Amino acid sequence: MNKIKRSWVLTKASLNVLKHDNELIVFPIISAVMMVVITLTFLIPTLVGNFLDQIINTGIPFFGYVVLFLFYLVQYFVVYFMSTALVGAAMIRLRGGNPTLKDGFQIALHRISPILGWSLVSATVGVILKMLSNQSKEKGRGLASILSSLLGAAWSVLTFLVVPVIAVEGLGPIEAVKRSWELLKRSWGEQIVGTMSIGLIFLLIGLAGGGVLVNIGVGLFILLDNVWPVAIIGILLVMLIMILSLLSTTLNGIFSASVYAYASEGRVGLIEERLLQNAFD
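The structure assignment produced for this chain is given below.
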């Protein structure tokens, strides 16, 4: 129960940061736009890689995995760069400052080397997990597929605080993972419960908002006997999903900064300090 209470306190701190600095959503927006550009850019290399694998036909899609690794590398670099900027700005607010977007970008620019190193590690792990998943599907081994999913989930939990560690301490990828593990041992309950709480909050908002829009669309369709209301509602649903996704991503980034501040410093700004006393035994 104490961990649940503390996780909610950290979530409230994250919400306060988002309330004070709602411009931080710009980082996930830039990241999302870049993801679209990167995906489109890699369409032709992916087709070429698949074509070469079919010609060679060694049983292992070597060129496909090479392209996938490069795709992951570029994708992760953009995501981690923007996440570092977001977390860095959030840490300034949590420590009592007044961050700007420029502050976030400057922090990320000063961490280019560890961000690139962490992107290489993440891309390598991503390809390995993809290979395990593909092999389990080809051979029909359900246990291997489950193991691959569990390893992916464990890796996500283990590395949850890597970006804050890079943003604040500037450690390299290996040291950052070790530091994340060290902090995880102090905050795993708050980390998991808080992340699930944020996900649940946005899921409920999405279901409620989506339900209202669908009912309005169906009602207008029946009343007006016209398909246009349905099309408009469909567009509004897509916009709702995009907005909630961006807000969720932003809040999760801020939450990781809150957990880091709590686990490493024992205090978090913007909330009642008495609620954080004796937080970890």
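Interim note for the steering committee: The radius of gyration is 21 Å. Confidence is low (pLDDT under 50) at residues 272-281.
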